[in-house]
């Protein structure tokens, strides 16, 4: 008798590998960013009816889609107090599943490592000149985020201004902005101008084209404290995105019945960005958690698209190194077919860091073949 497939629980920018179940689980809810496009069965970037995704991760594992935290997507509660939530409660709810290992893809983990890598990464990718980089580095004394003085902040904002028209979630992908700039007044006046303007777009696409801008203004949302939802910041859509296709599909009562979601009459229309929840970031750095979980024996894969300007891979690589585990496999290329698909380095205690060449923030969307390859190898315990 063949052993049953593993069960994957995808979360935003992460995935948990659950213990092998005796049967596939039927989800009561789903995470739309995975189901239609990223690693799910139905790609949505070219729409003429639903199409099967030949590189879906469901080919090698069962996938349980969970809208999390309660109050987003199709998830709901009859107790409105459940909509006041945060990092700890969200993690506790997900951890009710038996955990065997997890993958983290281009995830915000530590504010110092992640944001301090932005300026050096922009220079290394040829997005800013060496003169500009040296000027910022001298003014900021090598520290590009945190408690910096006014001169340093001014130099950093200049960098953001130069990069304002880039798709920060994949610098190779297009991004189209509304020609009329309308300032959104955020409570945090230290936000770089480029991020204050992230929500401005004329939404030119009838369907979603390439992932871009699917985040809060970074420096505002990823600090500790309450997270402002996009509808409370002016109610605008995000650059390079359109939710018309997803909304139409997920508001279809036949679709809802098929995926075991409640009807619109009970929980309302599906929203890509909701103001329903009151969310608080209350955990700080995640590095200590990764060290704890790896010490407990969980298998961990940290992967990064190497063209993501939102969470640049050098910052991720730096915090992985900071855990302090011994390198057991030196930095080397990994291959898809006979071509280099990225680079990897292995550490003690089943911790692996992997890059995917040419991918952005949503790796399975940009590099579906390579993504299925590394995911399959990781599940099987094979070397990359």
UniProtKB/TrEMBL annotation:
InterPro entries: AB_hydrolase_fold (IPR029058), Peptidase_S10 (IPR001563), Ser_caboxypep_his_AS (IPR033124). PROSITE patterns: CARBOXYPEPT_SER_HIS. GO terms for molecular function: acyltransferase activity, transferring groups other than amino-acyl groups; serine-type carboxypeptidase activity. Keywords: Glycoprotein, Signal. The keyword rRNA-binding does not apply. Coiled coil: none annotated. It comes from the Eukaryota. One of its GO terms (biological process) is secondary metabolic process. The keyword Glycoprotein applies. Residues 1-25 form the signal peptide. Pfam families: Peptidase_S10. Belongs to the peptidase S10 family. This is Serine carboxypeptidase 1-like.
């Amino acid at each position: 008798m063949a052993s049953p497939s593993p069960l994957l629980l995808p979360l935003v920018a992460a995935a948990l590998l659950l213990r092998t179940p005796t049967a596939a689980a039927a989800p009561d809810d789903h995470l739309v960013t995975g189901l239609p496009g990223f690693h799910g069965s139905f790609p949505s970037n070219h729409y003429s009816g639903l199409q099967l995704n030949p590189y879906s991760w469901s080919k090698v594992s069962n996938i349980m889609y969970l809208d999390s935290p309660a109050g987003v997507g199709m998830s709901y509660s009859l107790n409105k107090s459940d909509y006041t939530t945060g990092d700890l409660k969200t993690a506790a709810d997900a951890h009710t599943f038996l955990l065997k290992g997890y993958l983290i893809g281009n995830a915000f983990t530590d504010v110092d490592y992640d944001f301090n890598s932005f300026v050096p990464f922009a220079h290394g990718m040829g997005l800013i000149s060496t003169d500009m980089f040296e000027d910022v580095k001298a003014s900021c004394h090598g520290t590009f985020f945190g408690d910096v003085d006014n001169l340093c902040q001014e130099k950093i904002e200049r960098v953001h201004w130069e990069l304002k028209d880039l798709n920060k979630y994949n610098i190779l992908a297009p991004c189209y902005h509304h020609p009329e700039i309308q300032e959104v007044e955020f409570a945090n006046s230290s936000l770089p101008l480029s991020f204050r303007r992230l929500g401005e777009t004329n939404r030119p696409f009838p369907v979603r084209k390439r992932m871009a801008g699917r985040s809060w203004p970074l420096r505002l949302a990823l600090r500790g404290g309450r997270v402002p939802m996009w509808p409370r910041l002016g109610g605008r859509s995000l650059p390079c995105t359109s939710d018309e296709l997803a909304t139409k599909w997920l508001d279809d009562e036949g679709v809802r019945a098929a995926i075991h979601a409640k009807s619109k009459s009970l929980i309302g229309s599906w929203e890509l960005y909701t103001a329903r929840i009151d969310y608080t970031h209350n955990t700080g750095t995640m590095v200590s958690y990764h060290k704890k979980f790896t010490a407990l024996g969980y298998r961990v894969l940290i992967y990064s698209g190497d063209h993501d300007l939102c969470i640049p891979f050098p910052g991720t690589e730096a915090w992985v190194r900071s855990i302090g585990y011994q390198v057991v496999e030196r930095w080397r290329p990994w291959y898809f077919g006979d071509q280099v698909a990225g680079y990897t380095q292995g550490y003690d205690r089943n911790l692996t860091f992997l890059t995917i060449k040419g991918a952005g923030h949503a790796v399975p969307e940009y590099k579906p073949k390579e993504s299925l390859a590394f995911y399959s190898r990781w599940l099987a315990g094979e070397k990359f």
